[in-house]
Specification:
Layout (H helix, E strand, L loop, with lengths): L5 E4 L9 H16 L3 E6 L9 H13 L6 E5 L4 H14 L2 E4 L3 H13 L28 E4 L6 E6 L3 E6 L7 E3 L7 H11 L4 E5 L5 H11 L6 E5 L2 E2 L15 H7 L3 H9 L13 H7 L10 E2 L2 H13 L3 H14 L7 H11 L6 H12 L6 H7 L5 H13 L4 H15 L3 H13 L7 H6 L3 H8 L3
Parallel strand pairs: 1-2, 2-3, 9-10, 11-12
Antiparallel strand pairs: 4-5, 5-8, 6-7
Helix pairs in contact: 1-9, 5-6, 8-10, 11-12, 11-13, 15-16, 15-19
The chain binds glutamic acid (GLU).
The site of glutamic acid has 7 residues, from loops.
Length: 464
């Protein structure tokens, strides 16, 4: 590669950062890092009516959470309007763009006539300057748009990093409007000027942009700009095969942060949607970066798989240092309205429960029994806190008043109690779990009880 690799992600701040955009950002980031290049964040905020500061903040927060660090930006298109105007003026002067005075009514009539003749509706070039052609006199009461003078013949061909060679005939392409009557530049034009000015070498984006690419290439050529390479990644689909949307569940990156997914797990999972490295499923960021050279991007769309994401996240959770986990779970508990006391206890709680959880949110749900009241279900009470077990619960409570509050002593007290009452371990353990933990299944009961204050256990057993 001769050119310095420079990639970008260019979200529009009209909502949260969508998982699909996050995946494209991840691919662009990993590609730049792989090649020792630069990754740029550009906010495409020219749709003023729909762009919000809140969405900008969300995008930046999501990039930060995923640790997709950018070398330049965020750049805002609305701060670059003068630059777009300058390029438009240059194109008008050079004859690669021209004023078109058609009114919306004239354009409607033009399309209607084309349809009647069985032709595909398109701009007929009536204001397009040609050598030897006399243009109509410009009306003084119609503010003109600026159109790009697209080549009339030939093809636009590019070798897409994902899809292979794509060829579009110029006869398919209209003379695109690049500035509206009020002078504001249009979407495709801003993208071109930005990619040019920012010296973007590789544009990796969703394949919903394939149709824009030949237009953008033609404009770049007219400007004498070096062309970036393009890679169009297929959309992410929901389990039903439709494009992934809110209908399928959470599609905003930050909802996953809230639910207690880990950024490294999210990056690992997202990278496998439409890209592969052999059969590898679990790998670090460093491995991703070392492998991500632009090859092995899938031509067919990937499907969102919530169960697989949970599996990946559970694996990362298992491998996360307990002290770090405790701080994440502490935030989750606070969101649930619990007051978390000593961090030390929380570290031990995380170590004990993390194996059965996919997210820190689930972990916090488990740990709720340590920080707030429990409400055993009537069913669990009837099934487990039986007349047969009740006397043993009283004995056990009596022992709990006196023993050393440690796992070993709790275990010994339970064993003594079951043999004194001639009942089985699960009968007593289940009853204790239901009363103290509010559920019949938990990790080993002595380990679970040890992490409660003795007083809490005594008062919950009192209910037997
Ligand atoms: N703003 C566009 C989008 O959010 C991205 C355009 C591009 O990557 O070229 O879909």
């Amino acid at each position: 590669m001769t050119r310095k690799v420079r990639t970008r992600i260019a979200p529009s701040p009209t909502g949260f950062l969508h998982l699909g955009t996050a995946r494209t950002a991840l691919f662009s980031w990993a590609f730049a890092r792989h090649h020792g290049g630069d990754f740029i964040l550009r906010i495409e905020d020219t749709d003023v009516a729909r762009s919000t500061q809140e969405a900008v903040d969300q995008i930046i927060a999501a990039m930060k959470w995923l640790q997709l660090d950018y070398d330049e930006g965020p750049f805002f298109q609305m701060q670059r309007l003068n630059r777009y105007r300058e390029v438009i003026a240059k194109m008008l002067a050079e004859g690669t763009a021209y004023h078109c005075y058609c009114t919306p009514q004239e354009l409607d009539a033009m399309r209607e006539a084309q349809r009647t003749r069985g032709e595909k509706p398109r701009y007929d070039g009536r204001w397009r300057p040609e050598p030897g052609k006399t243009l109509p006199a410009a009306p003084s009461d119609v503010p003109p748009v600026v159109r790009f003078r697209n080549p009339l013949s030939g093809d636009v061909t590019w070798n897409d990093l994902v899809k292979g060679t794509i060829t579009i005939s110029n006869r398919e392409l209209d003379d695109l409007i690049i500035a509206r009557p009020d002078g504001t530049p249009t979407y495709n034009f801003c993208v071109v000027v930005d990619d040019w000015d920012m010296q973007i070498s590789h544009v990796i984006r969703g394949d919903d942009h394939v149709n824009n690419t030949p237009r953008q290439i033609n404009i770049l050529r007219a400007l004498g700009a070096e062309l970036p390479e393009y890679g169009h990644v297929p959309m992410i689909l929901g389990p039903d095969g439709d494009k992934l949307s809110k209908r399928h569940g959470a599609v905003s990156v930050m909802q996953y942060e809230e639910a207690g997914y880990l950024p490294d797990a999210m990056v690992n999972y997202l990278s496998r949607l439409g890209w592969s490295h052999g059969d590898d499923e679990l790998f670090s960021r460093a491995q991703l970066v070392s492998w991500f050279d632009g090859a092995h991007l899938a031509k067919s769309p990937a499907q969102w798989d919530a169960a697989k994401l949970n599996w990946v996240n559970a694996r990362y959770l298992k491998g996360t240092d307990d002290a770090l986990l405790a701080s994440l779970v502490s935030a989750q508990l606070s969101r649930r309205g619990f007051v978390v006391g000593s961090a030390e206890n929380l570290v031990r709680l995380c170590a004990l429960f993390k194996d059965r959880c996919a997210t820190t949110g689930e972990l916090a749900d488990w740990l709720g029994m340590y920080f707030g009241d429990v409400q055993p279900s009537a069913d669990d009470i009837t099934t487990h806190v039986t007349d047969l077990v009740r006397p043993a619960l009283h004995t056990l409570r009596g022992k709990f008043v006196e023993i050393d509050w440690s796992k070993a002593a709790i275990s010994a007290a339970i064993k003594e109690t079951i043999s004194a009452h001639g009942i089985k371990m699960p009968q007593l353990a289940h009853a204790v779990r239901v009363l103290v933990c509010g559920r019949a299944q938990t990790p080993s009961i002595d380990a679970v009880l040890e992490l409660f204050p003795r007083e809490t256990v005594l008062s919950r057993l009192q209910a037997a």
